[in-house]
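To whoever is on call:

I kicked off a structure prediction for a single chain this morning and the downstream step that reads the tokens threw a length-mismatch warning. I double-checked the sequence; it's 119 residues and nothing unusual in it as far as I can see. Pasting both halves so you can look.
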Amino acid sequence: GIIGVSCVFPLDLVKTRLQNSKPGPNGEKMYSGMLDCFRKTYRAEGYFGMYRGSAVNILLITPEKAIKLAANDFFRHKFTKADGTLPVLREMAAGGSAGMCQIVVTTPMELLKIQLQDA
């Protein structure tokens, strides 16, 4: 989780900046592409600037995964038939329900991360 966030976060930052960039007064683009955005961000903010907002992800990735796994176990137990079987549709419902629980935690974190990246 933490290693994944560390490796992918600069790309996520660039993606967010490209999505949120607005044209200048004469219609010129702020960035010509991903590589240009990466270079400009790195030059302006340095190495640590490429990780602006990552602390939110790193701090909350463990609880997020724990909630998802615990919710999945809970729903699998609740959706198991009396004979101990768990049909595929109920298994899918358990996974979907666990995903909904994860979204409740993830969405505010993602919004905060985007605000910090765009600052």
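Update from on-call: the warning came from a stale cache, not from the record. Cleared it. Sanity check on the structure: The CA atoms of residues 53 and 115 lie 8 Å apart.
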